[in-house]
Each structure stands twice: as structure tokens, then as C-alpha cells.
Write a structure and sequence with these properties.
The protein has 15 helices and 3 strands. Strand 2 and strand 3 (18-22) form a beta hairpin. The chain is 74% helix and 5% strand. The protein has 356 residues and is mainly α. It has a 3-stranded antiparallel sheet with strand order 1-2-3. Helix 1 (24-46) runs parallel beside helix 14. The protein has helices at residues 24-46, 54-61, 67-102, 114-129, 134-139, 142-162, 169-193, 196-207, 215-234, 236-242, 246-251, 256-278, 284-296, 303-323, 331-355; strands at residues 2-7, 10-15, 18-22.
Length: 356
């Protein structure tokens, strides 16, 4: 028998000897974000040279569409939207993991050097192997695999260099900034050695783009999320304890080294697969966890809400770049335009607090 009792921030649900607090906003925000994502995805799939209504798109997705509509929606437009949603989901969850672990809103794959590691791997593959056209390069398996390896190497270096009988959040950010500087210098050096066509292809990729995405890009990312996302959600209780500091976590019985290792590796894995699918779409992992924590009113960025808002941001930004702007641009340009002012605002706010 379940009994719900009101509390200040939600309700306490008891089922026999088991009880727990259920916060209404923690349920409403993910559900609202998921509903908005479905509607926005349907709108995006319907926009193009051959317009399709939202209801027709939804009917096609459930198998009730007509022949031409099925081909346009399922084969031409759905892969791009699905990849964008999965990439945003992975970035959002990874950003929430990093920011909770480091107890710092500036901690994200962009500032910690993970995305620049992926960029270095991809640019190295483009420059060293060359290519005949942008489409051929972006469609091959080599570039995503190189990006995946680059992100994993950067993540392992970040973890190894930040480890001192545990991983301190402040040290993690400092090491990440150093890795970003090294990775950025490596990318610049590689671009100076590249042929003009290869350099142009590399610039398109490292900006972050959903152009030419197919089901071949979506499938590996979907499989990775099926494994990594449940594991990340399973760390929620540990993350709640870790946000109070290492000493408190040890006092509450958390095995600190193992918990920190699991959180960092999960976040790095999510970023690595996301970047391998669509390139380093910047600032998503920085912005959406803070939006989610303000919407839910919690003490730390919620994982599921952050992921769904990240998916909503990427799909929405891609729709804007394709239909609103006078010229179609890679989605990473718009997310950077949103995230860069937010980063400056965080820095200014932090400086004002330090002077009070």
C-alpha cells in the first residue's frame, strides 16, 4: 500500500518499509521537455523543400503514412533529427555529471578539454588521410572513430592528471583548461599542414554539424546511450552525496575513489560517442544543466531533465539554422552564439560574488 504525504518541496511516498521524497517539478519538467521534443521534432521533419504537416509526420512515424511521405520523413529527415536529439541528450547528461561532480557550473566537456580532444582526433584523420569531398569525408567511418578515440584519450589524460588520491573538482577544471589549450594548439598545427580542401572539411566538422547524418550515425550512439544512460541515472544517489564534499561523502559511506571514477568515465563516454556522431556541438553541456536546475528547483543539475533539455536545444537550434536564418549554418555555430554570452555571464557573476 502506498501513502503520499506532503512535504515542503514535494511529497513523501511510502510503500511498506520503503519511503522516498518525490518532487513534483522533477517529474513535470522532464515530461514537459519530452512532449516539447516530440512536437519540435515533428515540426523539423516536416520542414523542407517538400513541406509536410505535423499530423502527417506523426502518422508517418507510427506507420500510417503514405509512400512518398514515408521516404521523405523516415529516410531523409528523421536521421538528422534523431541524431540531434541523441547528441543533445548525451551532452546534457554529461554536463550534469561533470558540474555536479566538480561542484562548478563552469565544468563541461568544452572547458575540460574533452571536445577539443575529439576535434584533434578528427582533424588528424582528415589531414593525414585526406579526402575527395566534404560529403565523402563526413560520411566515412574513419572520422567518427578518430573523434571517439580522441575524446577517450583526452578523458583518460584528464582523469590521470587530476587524480591525487581522488579527483578534486577544482584540480579537474584546471587540468581540463590545460588540456584544452594543448588540444587547440594541436588542431591549429594540423590545419596549417592541411591542403585547402581538407582544411575546409575539417572546419565544417569541428564546428559541429548535423548535415548528411544517416541512420549509420544514429545507431552506434543509440546503442551507447542504452548502456551509458541507465548507468548514469543509477549514480543519482551518489551524486547527491558527492555534492556536499569529499569528507561528507566518506562519512556517509561512499567509496569515494570508485564513485568518482565511475562518474568521470560515464561522462567521458557520453561525450565521446556524441562527438563521434555530430562533431563537437559546443556549449550544450555547459548551458542546459543550469537551465534544468533552475526549472526543477533542486540542489544540483538533474540528469534526465538536463538530457531532455539538451535534446530540445540541439533539435531547436538545427531547425532555426535551416528555416529561420537567411543561410543554413552548422548547428554548432548557433549553440556557440547562445553559450558564449552565458559563459561570460557566469564568469562575471563569479567575480562579483568573490568581491562581496
Amino acid at each position: 500500500m502506498s501513502v503520499a504525504a506532503p512535504v515542503r518541496s514535494g511529497r513523501v511516498v511510502r510503500t511498506g518499509p520503503v519511503s522516498g521524497a518525490v518532487r513534483v517539478r522533477h517529474l513535470v519538467v522532464p515530461l514537459a521537455a519530452a512532449g516539447a521534443l516530440v512536437v519540435l521534432s515533428a515540426i523539423s521533419m516536416g520542414r523542407g523543400d517538400f513541406p509536410i504537416g505535423v499530423l502527417d509526420v506523426l502518422r508517418t512515424l507510427v506507420g500510417l503514412g503514405e509512400g512518398p511521405q514515408e521516404f521523405i520523413v523516415l529516410e531523409l529527415r528523421a536521421p538528422r533529427v534523431v541524431v540531434g536529439a541523441l547528441v543533445g541528450l548525451a551532452f546534457g547528461v554529461a554536463g550534469a555529471l561533470f558540474q555536479t561532480f566538480a561542484r562548478n557550473p563552469l565544468a563541461s566537456p568544452d572547458t575540460l578539454g574533452i571536445t577539443i580532444g575529439a576535434s584533434a582526433g578528427a582533424v588528424a584523420a582528415i589531414v593525414l588521410t585526406g579526402g575527395t569531398s566534404t560529403g565523402a569525408i563526413l560520411g566515412g567511418l574513419g572520422i567518427p572513430l578518430a573523434a571517439l578515440l580522441g575524446a577517450l584519450v583526452a578523458g583518460l589524460l584528464l582523469f590521470a592528471l587530476a587524480w591525487r588520491a581522488g579527483v578534486d573538482g577544482y584540480r579537474l577544471v584546471l587540468v581540463g583548461i590545460a588540456l584544452w589549450a594543448v588540444g587547440n594548439a594541436l588542431v591549429d598545427w594540423l590545419l596549417t599542414r592541411a591542403e585547402i580542401n581538407d582544411a575546409a572539411s575539417a572546419y565544417v566538422w569541428i564546428t559541429g554539424s548535423l548535415n548528411s547524418r544517416t541512420w549509420d550515425h544514429a545507431l552506434p550512439l543509440a546503442v551507447a546511450l542504452c548502456v551509458l544512460l541507465p548507468l548514469a541515472l543509477a549514480t543519482s544517489r551518489t551524486l547527491t552525496v558527492l555534492q556536499f564534499g569529499d569528507d561528507t561523502a566518506r562519512g556517509l559511506g561512499v567509496r569515494l575513489a570508485g564513485a568518482q571514477t565511475a562518474v568521470v568515465l560515464l561522462a567521458v563516454g557520453l561525450v565521446a560517442f556524441a562527438v563521434s556522431a555530430a562533431g563537437p556541438i559546443t556549449f550544450v553541456a555547459l548551458v542546459v544543466p543550469q537551465i534544468a536546475v533552475r526549472l526543477t528547483g533542486g540542489s544540483r543539475p538533474p540528469l534526465l531533465a538536463s538530457g531532455l533539455i539538451g535534446a530540445l536545444l540541439v533539435v531547436g537550434a538545427d531547425l532555426v539554422t535551416r528555416t529561420v536564418l537567411p543561410e543554413a549554418l552548422p548547428v554548432g555555430i548557433l549553440t556557440a552564439a547562445i553559450g558564449a554570452p552565458y559563459l561570460l555571464w557566469l564568469l562575471v557573476r563569479g567575480r562579483r560574488r568573490s568581491t562581496l
